[in-house]
Task: inverse folding
């Protein structure tokens, strides 16, 4: 039909819905990148404190927009109280210790 537009159950036009969905995905992507960058900085700081030589030039090649830590499909169950108990005084989860430090 000429001139007709698809709307969802709330009466929103498809283009409005699509732009809102794209905006939400942008916010999500930016959040993941910010979170990953913060934890990279913590990990590099810990490695440097342990005496590891990590040149700044090397860090320019690290890309924080990877997605291995994102579950795009399915659901996960989170014990919120247990996760909150793990946070440090800045509200961050601790880095996972590895045997390669030091």
Result:
């Amino acid at each position: 039909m000429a001139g007709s537009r698809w709307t969802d159950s709330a009466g929103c036009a498809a283009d409005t819905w699509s732009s809102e969905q794209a905006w939400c995905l942008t916010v999500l992507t930016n959040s993941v990148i910010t979170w990953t960058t913060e934890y990279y900085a913590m990990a590099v700081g810990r490695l440097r404190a342990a005496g590891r030589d990590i040149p700044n030039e090397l860090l320019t090649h690290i890309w924080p927009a990877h997605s291995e830590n994102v579950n795009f499909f399915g659901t996960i169950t989170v014990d919120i109280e247990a996760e909150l108990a793990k946070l440090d005084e800045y509200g961050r989860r601790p880095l996972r210790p590895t045997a390669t430090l030091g």
User: Anything to note?
Assistant: The helical segments are 14-49, 56-59, 80-85.
